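Give me structure tokens for this 83-residue protein.
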Amino acid sequence: MAKEMPTSANEIAAVAEAAGQLGIKTPDVAEFTKVMVMLGDTTNMSATEAATQLARLANITGMSASEYSNLGATIVDLGKVIA
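Here you go.
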């Protein structure tokens, strides 16, 4: 991921670690991490902050990994409307 995104490997690893600690299933950690890093790059949230808050939401709602990208896009779109 660090070769594909403008984010350090350390930050990506921190997001993946947070995802695991917050209950994101092991097979889903990579996709979740990618979406959270992109959110960190495109919003005023840090990637780690996004991971922490959105992992909680994903766990509460029972969100599947296929919906992480939709969640990220929705948050970015809402930010555009509010700004």
